[in-house]
């Protein structure tokens, strides 16, 4: 690594580093993450880690895929954890690289506890969560003083692959002005109905961001009442984030990536009355 005005921790043999790879753009990696990529003997990566990130691994590093994708053949969590322990016991420097942040719906805590049980030393390197960084690339802030002073992050499915049944949907719908939902496309209709039944307006703005921060990024601006039909019509596919709330309207002023491509932004997006047109952009 180029000389830096800070001391980077040594990636020791027999250690596992649980590292967040950010939402997709390799430029959003932390210095510690880049250091790990350039030091590891073995890299165990998930389905949300992009090719540009993997290319940063040092020459000779062994890459092993251990991704999980809903509805597709996936590695079992217990097998992934055991593989990390096995490689560490062989004296390897093991990098477990996850999309986003390891501790934000990334099962990093489960893997870390398995390492503790196996008496394996580890380090956690946080990453930029897609629920913050990915939405920022879409021009949607998760907080804005004119819209909200609270935000809730939740997963669109539990360990069984269904909509979580331990969420207080009434409390969520009535208490959180902005809701960011990971892995929600499959159950979007059910989630939208739960929110509307418990008080959210069918006209409330919804943003859906697919493959956030990558060249394949797509953004759909829709509403809670029509989001399912609009997703089907747009062809947007997972991995995708869903954000519900007035902050979605700010995109007409904050779509900085669109502005690079020529979109004219407005300085007062919350006062634009007609928000009815559905917008899909790269």
Write up this protein.
This protein folds into two domains: 16-128, Tetrapyrrole methylase, N-terminal domain (Cobalt-precorrin-4 Transmethylase, domain 1, 3-Layer(aba) Sandwich); 131-281, 2-Layer Sandwich (Methyltransferase, Cobalt-precorrin-4 Transmethylase, Domain 2), CATH 3.30.950. 27% of the residues lie in helices and 18% in strands. It has ten helices and eleven strands. The strands form two sheets. It has a six-stranded mixed beta sheet, with helices on both faces. Strand 6 (151-155), helix 6 and strand 7 form a beta-alpha-beta unit. Pfam families: TP_methylase.
Explain briefly what this protein structure is.
The chain has 282 residues and is an alpha/beta fold. It has 10 helices and 11 strands. Keywords: Methyltransferase, Porphyrin biosynthesis, S-adenosyl-L-methionine, Transferase.
Number of helices: 10
Structural class: alpha/beta
Unreliable parts: none
Q: Which percent bin holds the helix content?
A: 25-40%
How many extended strands? 11
Q: Which series of helices and strands comes N to C?
A: EHEHEHEHEHEHEHEEHEHHE
Q: At the third CATH level, what is the topology name of the largest domain?
A: Methyltransferase, Cobalt-precorrin-4 Transmethylase, Domain 2
Overall pLDDT metric: 92
Whole-number total of structural domains: 2
Q: Just name the CATH architecture of the largest domain.
A: 2-Layer Sandwich
State the CATH superfamily name of the largest domain.
Tetrapyrrole methylase, C-terminal domain
CATH class placement of the largest domain: Alpha Beta
Strand content: 15-25%
The backbone outline, from C-alpha atoms, is globular
């Amino acid at each position: 690594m180029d000389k830096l005005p800070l001391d980077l921790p040594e990636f020791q043999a027999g250690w596992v580093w649980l590292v967040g790879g950010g939402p997709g753009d390799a430029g959003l990696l932390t210095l510690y993450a880049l250091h790990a990529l350039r030091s590891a003997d073995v890299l165990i990566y998930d389905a949300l880690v992009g090719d540009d990130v993997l290319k940063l691994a040092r020459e000779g590093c062994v890459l092993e895929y251990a991704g999980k994708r809903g509805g597709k053949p996936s590695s079992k969590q217990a097998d992934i954890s055991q593989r990390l322990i096995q490689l560490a016991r062989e004296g390897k420097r093991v990098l477990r690289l996850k999309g986003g942040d390891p501790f934000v719906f990334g099962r990093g805590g489960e893997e870390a506890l398995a390492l503790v049980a196996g008496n394996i030393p580890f380090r956690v390197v946080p990453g930029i969560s897609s629920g913050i960084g990915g939405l920022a690339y879409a021009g949607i802030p998760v907080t804005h003083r004119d819209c909200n002073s609270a935000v809730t992050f939740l997963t669109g499915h539990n360990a069984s692959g269904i909509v979580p049944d331990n969420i207080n949907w009434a409390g969520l719908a009535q208490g959180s002005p902005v809701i960011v939902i990971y892995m929600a496309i499959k159950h979007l209709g059910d989630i939208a109905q739960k929110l509307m039944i418990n008080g959210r307006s069918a006209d409330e703005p919804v943003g859906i961001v697919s493959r956030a921060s990558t060249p394949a990024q797509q953004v759909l601006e829709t509403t809670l009442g029509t989001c399912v039909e609009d997703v089907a019509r747009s062809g947007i596919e997972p991995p995708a984030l869903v954000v519900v709330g007035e902050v979605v309207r700010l995109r007409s002023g904050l779509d900085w990536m669109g502005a690079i491509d020529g979109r004219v932004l407005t300085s007062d997006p919350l006062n634009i009355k007609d928000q009815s047109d559905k917008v899909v952009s790269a």
